Amino acid sequence: MIKTNELTKYYNKNARGILEVSLDIKEGEIFGFIGPNGAGKSTTVRTLLNLIFPTSGKASVMDLDIVSDSVEIRNNVGYIPSEINYYGEMTGEEFLHYAASFYDCDYLAKMKDLSKRLELDLSRKISELSTGNKKKLAIVESLQHSPKILFLDEPTSGLDPLMQNTFFSIIEEEKKQGTTIFYSSHILSEVQRICDRVAIIKEGRIIKVETIEDIMKARAKKVRVKTDKDFIHEDEDIVNIKKENGYVQFVYTGKIEKLLKLLQDKKIEDLTIIEPSLEEVFMHYYQKEDVK
Amino acid sequence: MKTLIKAEFKRNYKSLILWTAIIAGLAGLMLFLFPAFENSFEDMEEFIDIYPPEFLEAFGMGEGGLDMTEIYGWFGIEGYLFVTLIGGSYAAILGGSILSKEEDDKTVEFLLSKPISRTKVLFGKVIVVGINLFILNLVVSIVLLIAFSIFAKLNVAVWLLYSFAPLILQAIFASLSLLVSIFVTKSRKVLSIALGLVIGLYVVDLISKLTEEAEFLKYITPYEYVNAPTIVNDHMIKPLYLLLSVLIIGIAIVFTWRLYLKKDIKT
Questions:
Q1: Residues A252, A279: one domain?
Q2: B18-48 pLDDT per residue, tens
Q3: How many independent structural domains does chain A possess?
Q4: Distance from A87 to chain B by nearest Cα, in Å?
Q5: Sign of the dihedral defined by the CA atoms of residues B36, B42, B46, B48, in that order
Q6: ipTM of the complex
Q7: Domain that holds residue A144
Q8: What is the CATH number of the domain that holds A145?
Q9: Which of B6, B12, B113 to mutate to test the interface with A (most CBs of A within 10 A)?
Q10: In terms of domains, do A15 and A123 share one?
Q11: Contacts with A122 (C-beta within 8 Å, 6 or more apart), sequence order
Q12: Residue A218 in 3-state DSSP?
């Protein structure tokens, strides 16, 4: 459905762009695209939509060339940009009608249904909407014309957790309809939650394309324990141990049962287990890859 | 493209009303002041004799110039400048902002993710600029029609030329500003350059009339292309100037189009 072959976008020395990105995304798949800010996620999406032109390499969407057939491609695409900038003087409703007018389709029912589920007030001017409400508007806008492909660039940023859940169920419904979804994010847990496969992009290059299951094996947790006993030592699952103020902190990549066993019957005053930042996961993950 | 034109028109109609009111209002004001001055022209002529001929030439009152004692000449000297200079400013602002505003506000990211080609986006916007400028001049033409009919026998050719020759000048400024806005996407910067062009070329026009050595400059200023003495005395726009105008507008739009087709949209 979406194919890129050594797709490269070079801006200049300071702005990296993307380098030789090759991907093959199947029809009906939710494909996660994950990496830290500035890694090239938005550049990839914007190149596929022909908002910017590739420096070299080729790409196609639905077997249509991204440069020469971009209008036909966009006729089948919904897009949530990472930053929402719509016409401030329009109301949400005016804007959605305007957006839909570019397609030849029935959209009213879906527009109303989605707006209701997302609790979006369509009568307000866009300039008066909060970031979260603008995001909701973008969600409705990208879906109301029932596109075959969705490009979502950081779609949950600005949404509160409840709305994120609503959003995920909407996306899952779209998937059931056979929509192919390109899901760019820097939040590992949300990609893990809904994607089938994930590409990891770093400094403009794809370092890995994995199924979620494989990524899960390399999942790491950041563990912080308050204890005065010295029972935590580095091994294959415990790395990066730091001790301060009676706390021991480490990155854990093994099975959860094993961690629980380790902590059992010890004198522990406090315990937190949190998702490490993406960088921390990747750092460890790739150290491991290198060892292999 | 129809919906784009409609939305674009809706976005711009308020400023169209404002600019049209100002320009038609000033033109009308000067026209209807004519009777008040008509009787004092004898004094005026003495007054005018004080000035050097070059100076009078620069304001269209020199030899082969305009006759202030009749309404057509009066408008050419006292009112036409509002339509060309202020109308030119409006055209430059409109042409310079119609693309760059979307880039400045970043709404272009939305627009160009829709199934519409950049060619259609550009020409849709060019059409809106054309319609707006036409409406402006149409309103002015009604004011002129009323004034000319009241104060003299209506000369249809002069009336129509006065009404729609400024459209050529405005189109030149609009298309040049549009071209500038491809390179400079900050709306404010585009507008400074565009207005600089409108005022700068007016100064060039004055200079070309003030000194004979600088007369060649008249070929590069749109104010000369549509100047009032030629309209009133010869009932025409010189064919060379008409050709130059069409070329400038055509080349500016084609360049804009080719560049827009290849342009990276910045975030």
A1: yes
A2: 999 999 999 999 999 888 877 776 666 666 7
A3: 2
A4: 7
A5: positive
A6: 0.86
A7: 2-216
A8: 3.40.50.300
A9: B113
A10: yes
A11: A91, A92, A93, A96, A115
A12: coil
